[in-house]
# Entry
Amino acid sequence: MQSVALKVKTMLASIQSPLAEVIVPKTDEYLLQKIIRQDDYGAFEELFHRYYQALCLQVNSRVGYLQATEEIVSDVFTKIWRNRANISITTKVKYYLYTAVRNQSIDYLRKQTKQRNYKHEINRDYPSNFASPEELIIGEELRIKIEAAIEQLPPKAKHIFRKSRDEGKKYREIAEELNISIRTVETHIRRALIALRGAVFTD
# Structure
């Protein structure tokens, strides 16, 4: 009798076990819903680690450059997290991820091809011993900034600096012409250069 009663108690205890202890399988779709509905970053990290390496292998087979590969895969996941409130995925998450990194890889390769073609055209039209249009523009902008900075120098410093730079005179020649010491010339030139460096390269 005792053994029968014990069996009944055991059976009743098993029936009364809480249903909350049932483990829900963490499928990709389950994790995605946690991300979208609950802003669950833990679920996002789990999905990221679940597919990161496989996606990197897929991308690297196309682009052949590890740093670009990692950036492409990370960018896909970053977009999912940033747009989680509005994202709409109608296929399986796995298919969505592989399609997304493939498209990102194609965009990357297109950009690389355009850059190579542009550089080829520049090198063809403007040999290395000539400045390219970009270099000419940058050089002109820098010249304008330098001239504007020189005009802001104190009168004496500006006068001495122009004699050195524009007229190509040595410090000794400037000192003799202006009846000042070479050390004074050096001081004005040094202060002028410091002022110019600050004005031109602080933007």
Q: What stands out?
A: The two ends are 93 Å apart (CA to CA). The CA atoms of residues 171 and 185 lie 6 Å apart.
